[in-house]
Design a protein that fits this description.
This protein is of the alpha+beta class and about 260 residues long. Helix content is about 25%, strand content about 25%. The strands form four sheets. Strands 1, 2, 3, 7 and 8 form a five-stranded antiparallel β-sheet that branches.
Amino acid sequence: MKDLRVPFDVGPEAQEPLVLEPGWSKHWTSLWKFSGAEVVAPVRDLGSMRPGGCEPVRRFSWRTTQHHRPGLQYMVSTGRHHGFESMAEQKLLLALDFAGDLIEVFSQPFRLRFRTTSGWREHTPDFLASTHSGMLLIDVRPANRVKPDDRVRFAATEEAGLACGWRYLVITGWLPHVMTTLDTVSSQRRPLTDRLRLQDELLATVAADPLPFGELVASTRVPVMARAYALHLVWHRRLSIDLAEPLTDRTLVHPLTNGRVR
């Protein structure tokens, strides 16, 4: 997922207002909600928190005058719907689902209270993702909406994450064609019944060398149906394509072995 996003650097100037004196991690706090009850823990103890069952600390709101679009996104990785507050957050959930490393994801998991030279401030990260490679804290903000105050909040969140060994990402956008391609591939992410064994046919055809998408599906007994199965195999990491290029019949499809392109 990291290779698909537009690179973003919080910048050293955003860290300057943070008060990071010795022992700061026991003074900065995080507020969580479990079964409606609030739990406050110092940042130094974040790594020992078990987020399973935590509730969003900020309620999702729906009203006619709002400028963002909240909703629920179904994720194959968890088998459940997850809340998002904007279309940008929905895209992030789609990318997380495709990444193949996800175990669980929590929306608005906690509220961070941190100290700056101008006083105490608060920030609620957008998502906390549990992955096979560790915990990942994520904020989502379109690049044209990132203000200096946001950068300070991001810098504080990054410091809190580093204090407990979590990775941190700010998603400001995606490389060209990535989301269009992911949206297309995700249309076939759910389980499919393969009575004609078209998936085996596709995998066998492309096993030796990569083939253009159109040529690959045309080589099967039922090309129209094979298109759906080819997309399904791409989503589930059994075939690979370049997500940074438009998906057309000329797109090269590569076989994958142990998650790697052959």
